[in-house]
Structure formats: C-alpha cells, structure tokens
Design a protein that fits this description.
One of its GO terms (biological process) is 'de novo' GDP-L-fucose biosynthetic process. Its cofactor is NADP(+). There is one protein chain. 39% of the residues lie in helices and 15% in strands. With 334 residues, the protein is α/β, with parallel strands linked by helices. The strands form four sheets. The chain has a seven-stranded parallel beta sheet with strand order 3-2-1-4-5-6-11, with helices on both faces. A two-stranded parallel ribbon has the order 7-10. The protein has a two-stranded parallel sheet with strand order 8-13. Bound molecules: ligand G4F. Ligand G4F binds at residues 89, 91-92, 130-132, 181-183, 192-194, 197, 215-218, 220, 222, 256, 281, 283, 286.
Length: 334
C-alpha cells in the first residue's frame, strides 16, 4: 500500500486529494494544526468513518514552524509521497500579515525540504506553487519557462518556495516538483475567495437576504478551474519517471464580473441589483490578469480540465443553496 503524507489536509485541495488517494488504495497521513475546535468540515466525512480513520487515514498535530514534530511524524509515517499544500493562501491578506505569510509559505517550505533530505528514505515531494509567482507577467499565457515577477507578498513567498524546491531537486537530486496552479475553486472553497463569496451571497439573496454584496475590482481576470481536477494533476506529477514542474490551468480567462453573471443567473436574479464595489476591498496591488498554458501537462501527464466555469459556478451555487436550506432547518451550516 503506497503511503502519502499531506500538509494542509483540511483545506479544499487537501480534502479532494485525500479522497483521490484513498480511492487509489493509499494509506494517507495528514498534518493538522492544533485548534480548540475539532470540526474539520471538509474531511469530517472521512475522519468520522470508522472503516477509514485509524486504518487508512491518520491525522497528526504539527505546524510548519515546528521542525522537531514534523521530523518525528515523517520518520514515523515513512511516506513514499509528500504533498505540501499548507501555507497562508489568501493573496489580499498577505498585505496585512506579510511576515507570517512568508514564515509559513516560504520558510515553512524550506524547513520541510531540509527535513525530507535528511530522511533515511527520501520521499517524492509535490509542492503546490501558484500563478501569483508570475505577478505582472512578461507574456500571456504563461508557461513553465515564463520568468517570475511577483507583485504581492504572497507571490514573493511562493516564488521563494518554488525556487527552493527547484534548488533542492538540482542540488540534492530529490524528486521534488512544483505544480504551478492557477485559481481553482469548488463548493469547498474558502468563503473569503471571490468566487465563493459571490456564490454564497447569491444563494443567501435568493433565499430572501436583503444584503448588498461588496466587492473589490470586478474587472480582474483569472483562469479558473475545478479543484478536483487540479489534485488529479498533482498525483499524476508524482507518478512520472523524471521530476519536472508543470503549469496546471484551463487556459481560459474570465472576469469577476462574469462570475457574478453566472452565479446570479443560476438563481434567476440580476447581479447589478445586489452588488456594489467597495474601495476597502481593493488590494494595495493586484495582479490584473493571469492565464496559464497547460499544454505540457496535457502532453506528458495526459491531464485536462473537465469542468468549465459556468458549470463550476452553478455547482457552487447549488451547494450553497442546499447548505443554507439545511441551516435554516436548524442544523449547522457546513
Ligand atoms: O479569489 P481571489 O482572492 O483569488 P486570488 O487572489 O487570485 O488567489 C487565489 O488564486 C491563486 C492562484 O491559484 C492562489 F495562489 C491563491 O492562494 C488563491 O487561491 O481573488 C481573485 C480576484 C482578485 O483580482 C481580487 O482582487 O478577485 C478580485 N476580487 C474582487 N473583489 C476579490 C474581491 N477577491 C476577494 N478575495 N474578495 C473580494 O471581495
């Protein structure tokens, strides 16, 4: 039974990846940060299943600043594959908390690389990089050879981590690779990211809320895909003979304005009647447009995205409607 270890297992990508690896027969270890609340809504369906948790899925407490504990967990679990997904993932927030963003995302990755290279059996490592490393890019679409020009503290921290993974691959011969992922969403997306903020608001307004949705730059353009597809690409990357980085993207650009249209259309409303732009939601600096060229992933990994943005937004709105209706019945909202 292959053994995988996932940092960031409780996040959107971590939960889809755990399901994928379990379905492929892996034994999965996950690292979680200690918090007073023990609910982990994205993986509770797995951890509360007695046939899975404790036999094929294990959670361990640690965080990326705690090298001693991380090393102990690595030694004990002896993974064949490590998927490093943890970090501060909100670009806007990185302007408010730049030091902890760099501490977790940049130094956390370096710390993990140092631990892995000292292990008796060095596992394969997949790091989830980000399109934010391209910042204001020199070309569009971006490929694996496009130079990095990060424009946010988050982008700088990611660029450090991605380059460090490359350095350890070249210097120490590690099988360590970067998935340079563009925006990827799902019903499990965090509520502060723009797609989920929109789909949740559309669902609430449909069910009677009188609120006004306040957004920042709605002309911003992104390459949005489905998170379930992206974790499949991550797994494929670690099954290759040679370690290489890949762009994971749809290659299709859409604006926040289009996301608004798709979400409010899905509930039969006009977004213009419910949305205001708010200066407070604009970032100190924002990347205007990012589009990925995933032709290498298509060619070598046989990977391609399966869900387009209209379908993705509809899926998210449906899930938010269902969760809110459950909530209004008195049971907790997911
Ligand atoms: O949804 P976002 O916050 O995603 P962003 O900044 O592109 O970052 C996401 O994708 C990256 C690439 O994969 C990841 F590395 C990163 O971890 C994260 O997953 O914002 C998208 C766009 C931005 O231009 C933002 O300025 O939407 C714009 N926007 C407009 N109004 C807003 C809002 N973003 C947020 N979060 N909230 C708003 O009210």
């Amino acid at each position: 039974m292959p053994i995988a270890l996932i940092t960031g297992i409780t996040g959107q990508d971590g939960s889809y990846l755990t399901e994928l690896l379990l379905s492929k027969g892996y034994l999965v270890h996950g690292i979680v940060r200690r918090a007073s609340r023990t609910e982990r809504p994205r993986i509770d369906h797995l951890t509360l299943d007695g046939t899975i948790y404790g036999s094929r899925l294990f959670l361990h407490y640690a965080d990326l600043q705690d090298a001693t504990t991380l090393r102990r967990i690595m030694l004990k679990s002896a993974p064949d594959e490590v998927y490093h997904l943890a970090g501060q993932s909100h670009v806007g927030l990185s302007f408010e908390i730049p030091e902890s963003t760099c501490e977790f995302t940049a130094m956390g990755t370096l710390r993990l690389l140092e631990i892995l290279r000292d292990l008796p059996k060095v596992p394969r490592l997949l790091y989830v990089g980000s399109s934010e490393v391209f910042g204001n890019p020199v070309e569009s679409p971006q490929s694996e050879t496009t130079p990095f020009r990060p424009a946010t503290p988050y982008g700088v921290a990611k660029a450090f981590a991605v380059d460090m993974v490359r350095v350890y691959r070249q210097a120490f011969g590690m099988f360590a690779v970067n998935a340079l992922c563009y925006n990827h969403e799902s019903p499990r997306r965090g509520e502060s990211f723009v797609t989920r903020k929109i789909t949740r608001a559309a669902a609430r307004i449909k069910l009677g809320s009188k609120e006004t949705l306040k957004l920042g730059n709605i002309e911003s353009v992104r390459d949005w895909g489905f998170a379930g597809d992206y974790v499949d690409a991550m797994w494929r990357m670690l099954q290759q003979e040679t370690p290489e980085d890949f762009i994971i993207a749809t290659g299709r650009l859409s604006s926040v304005r289009q996301v608004l249209e798709y979400a409010f259309n899905a509930v039969g409303l006009r977004w213009q009647d419910h949305v205001q732009t708010d200066a407070g939601q604009f970032r100190a600096a924002d990347v205007q447009s990012l589009c990925g060229d995933a032709s290498k992933a298509r060619r070598i990994l046989g990977w391609q995205p399966t869900v387009d943005l209209v379908k993705l937004v509809e899926m998210m709105v449906e899930s938010d409607l269902a969760a809110l209706q459950t909530h209004s019945d008195g049971r907790p909202e997911n």
